[in-house]
Description:
Chain A is mainly α and about 260 residues long. Chain A has a single domain, classed as Four Helix Bundle (Hemerythrin (Met), subunit A).
Amino acid sequence: MYGKxxxxxxxxxxxxxxxALGLVFFWVPLEADQGFLxxxxxxxxxxxxxxxxxxxxxxxxxxxHLRTREQKWDFRSYVAIHMSLIFGVATLITGSIWAxxxxxxxxxxxxxxxxxxxxxxxxxxxxxPLRFAIEDPERQSRYASVFAxxxxxxxxxxxxxxxxxxxxxxxxxxxATSNLPWQMSLTFxxxxxxxxxxxxxxxxxxxxxxxxxxxxxxLRRLAERRAGARTSATxxxxxxxxxxxxxxxxxxxxxxxxxxxRSR
Amino acid sequence: MSTAVPDxxxxxxxxxxxxxxxxxxxxxxxxxxxxxxxxxPAGTLSVVRALLRKELLVELRTLESxxxxxxxxxxxxxxxxxxxxxxxxxxxxAAGILWVTLLFAAMLGVNRLFVADADQGGFDGFxxxxxxxxxxxxxKATALLAYLVVLELVAVPAFGLLLLSPPLGHAxxxxxxxxxxxxxxxxxxxxxxxxxxxxxxxxxxxxxLLALPLLVPIVIGGARASSPLLALGHATGPSxxxxxxxxxxxxxxxxxAYALFDFLLED
Lengths: 264, 267
């Protein structure tokens, strides 16, 4: 269901990322001020953009979940936010490295983009604990969706507020994208495309794995019941993951067989 | 029960509406069951008023939130005095202390806002009543706003007395405006977050964790707007930019809370 096109997507991701990294390291000219260090720009900024877009996409999927009540939307919202959090960690690390290299500090409060990214990241870091603290799966996905919508709307607002609060003391590379030399712009665009593809591939991969695992679990339970193993009637343990439980999704693949089995 | 006197029904329905709880006598339930087609027994405004009255009555009788919040704020000023080792503050530092204190004191109120409803069946009662669910958002947010106003009635004069070096009187009219705008935002976000966190296992932890990042823009706006007011010279008023930021943030999060609150009250 989710695995369709995964191979093509994966191959194109590898190709584009390889091209982008090749351009970054061997082709694009060095920047006059910062020299080699500035090349982290081609990794850091796409990571940040993709991560923020992933957070907003999680909010949009959550709106779909609240509207339609279909569990697949909550599943997608969870995966988008989960992957964005991972990309967010990478963004903060690369941003810190860049700040250390160019300004001498690991953290720079005068850089509004970095600061607002940290606030957004701290907010989303509570997403998993929130899910994990709610037992009932239906309520868990509903509350998580409410959170995802609120936080998704918070992302742009927070950027506006933090940017307004900061004086522009430092040269802004991102703001100056328009007067970059064309080689730099091209490399940046290819890196951004590569990072977007990487995000999409990883999301699709996670969706496929989780969905397949849930289906397998459902089938195994079905087989156990068919075999008459009445002792295995214990509910499946939720484990240590806060991922949405996909029993219902998996069950819809075999709607006629589930109900009589359950009523036994 | 079918022998209930017809003209007793409006009275009992009104009683339900006024108390705002559905811990109503059985006759009230039967009265509503007898007329299942009545779409709206009570307008949203009267439901909000009833719920708000209940909130404030409960707070007046138990004194669970507001005295604790105020005491916390005053104690925090004392802690700041020792932690900073300063007898008086002004400008940026004063604004920072005031806003951090108010924010953390507000967190205490936010954490307790829905606890009674979740633990003692207030949600169930409210959901059984055929009323607009947003009424609870409006009532709770207004109640939280009232708590914040009382908190500031205590905390701001205490701050002026204990820590602030310029006289508070000059700054007061403008400061009240800034505080009012910030309070609206804290009430909207606080109510949404409190409802989100209250029925989780770790509600005392999740409430502040969710609310603090969401309130950062309010702190930015509030602190930047009030720091010139609390400066020694008191040269300029608050910049209109920050008041606008606060107002827009209030508006947006008020709308978000209104749009999403219903989904938190479904079971």
